[in-house]
Design brief:
Elements: H1 3-9, H2 11-29, H3 33-53, E1 63-67, H4 73-84, E2 88-93, H5 99-106, E3 110-113, H6 119-136, E4 139-145, H7 160-188, E5 191-195, H8 208-229, E6 235-239, H9 253-263, H10 266-272, H11 274-282, H12 298-309, E7 316-318, H13 322-333, H14 336-347, E8 356-358, E9 361-363, H15 372-384
Parallel strand pairs: 1-2, 1-4, 2-3, 4-5, 5-6, 6-7
Antiparallel strand pairs: 8-9
Helix pairs in contact: 2-3, 6-7, 7-8, 13-14
Length: 385
């Protein structure tokens, strides 16, 4: 752990200690010693409480951490980090022979295939995990529900299969694998870490379906946190922030756009015209496959360690830049018409108001399908001339 990370981790204790020291020095040079002593004692007490409630569990090879969705990106990174912390790691992958799986196997991580949308795959995964835990007498320390998919595209564009797939992976799949593992979770008082997103609390345009699934998983995590607390099971939500360019979560985005365009009705194609193409081109840089590698942002690992190991965990751990806090505060305190403008500024998607040119006839995109018949009539007139 670097110096800056150590200072951030122990910031409250350092502040309390500095306050105590200042109070003692003040008492030495003033006559108001009672007040200075009181301040010092309160600061010392705060430091002790912070130390107690800020304590963390330790990991060793007898404690197992399951991380789902480890083919690349965050899951791949968290699996490696859990191993670095000393745990025995079981990493679930969609492609058992993929590059990410092979790299994880070389490090000694246990890699098991898992498709959380497939009942048989879930049952097989549970059987393999139970067999390993019983055979080695391991304890299941944590289940990190990371597996997820994201598809960019406005709501009308996304196909039914695309919306269904996001729902099945991000929401239903997470619940299914957790439900299947509950006998082991109850037995070992396993911590459940649910990887969520900023989009859960602040849904954004372009990812309506994704935002809905993350909001749903947040609601589920909040409910079961209360349900399972009495059994000694902690449920924690972890919001890692943006790392899309270090992940393959959008690797198939170009294919998704092709499927959207293919399924689009004639009316929709006419209405959106070149806006769809400009939108798709805007996201081209993100639609590339990268070699699985660890995410570089150290703050993600710092926050994740808290979610995984804090003796008295918070309900939510967030890794976000300061400007996100500024935006989200404004989202909550401003009227909706201002919030919507702020959201557009935050996301910065292509401009809809640009003009579309169709066979020499200028069409304002804002007019929509109602204007279709006029355009057809104009085309017929051009042929007659």
């Amino acid at each position: 752990m670097g110096l800056s990370a150590w200072v951030r981790k122990h910031s409250m204790i350092l502040i309390a200690g500095a306050t105590s020291t200042a109070g003692l020095l003040y008492s030495c040079y003033t006559t108001n010693k009672r007040l200075a002593t009181l301040i010092s004692l309160c600061s010392f007490g705060s430091a002790c409480l912070q130390k107690h409630y800020g304590s963390r569990h330790m990991l060793n090879t007898n404690k197992v951490v399951i991380v789902t969705g480890c083919d690349s990106g965050l899951g791949y990174s968290l699996a490696l980090h859990c191993q670095f912390l000393g745990a025995t790691v079981i990493a679930s992958v969609l492609d058992e022979n993929g590059q990410g799986a092979e790299l994880l196997k070389k490090t000694g991580i246990i890699v098991l295939p898992l498709d959380i949308t497939n009942e048989k795959s879930i049952e097989q995964f549970y059987g393999d995990v139970r067999l390993l835990l019983n055979k080695k007498r391991y304890t299941l320390k944590a289940l990190v529900n990371n597996a997820g998919v994201m598809i960019f595209g406005e709501f009308e564009w996304q196909t039914k299969d695309q919306m269904k797939h996001q729902l099945e992976v991000n929401f239903l799949g997470t619940m299914k694998i957790t439900h299947q593992l509950m006998p082991l979770i109850r037995r070992d008082s396993t911590r459940i870490v649910v990887v969520s997103s900023h989009c859960a609390s602040e849904p954004l345009p372009g990812v309506a379906a994704y935002s809905a699934t993350k909001a749903a998983i947040n609601a589920w995590a909040t409910a079961i946190r209360v349900e399972l607390k009495k059994y000694g099971i902690d449920v924690v939500t972890f919001v890692p922030g943006s790392f899309t360019q270090e992940s393959n979560i959008l690797a198939k985005q170009s294919e998704c756009f092709d499927a959207m365009k293919e399924s689009m009705t004639l009316d929709a194609r006419y209405f959106y015209k070149d806006y769809f193409d400009r939108y798709a081109k805007y996201f081209e840089p993100l639609a590339c496959k990268v070699t699985p590698k660890a995410v570089e942002n150290p703050r993600i690992y710092e926050k994740f360690e808290g979610a995984l190991l804090d003796s008295y965990p918070s309900s939510v751990y967030k890794c976000e830049p300061w400007r996100y806090c500024f935006y989200y505060t404004l989202f909550k305190i401003t009227p909706y018409y201002i919030r919507d403008r702020l959201t557009e500024s935050f996301v910065k998607l292509p401009n809809w108001k640009e003009k579309n040119i169709d066979k020499g006839f200028e069409v304002d995109s804002s007019k929509g399908p109602i204007f279709e018949q006029i355009a057809k009539d104009f085309s017929l007139l051009e042929k007659d001339l």
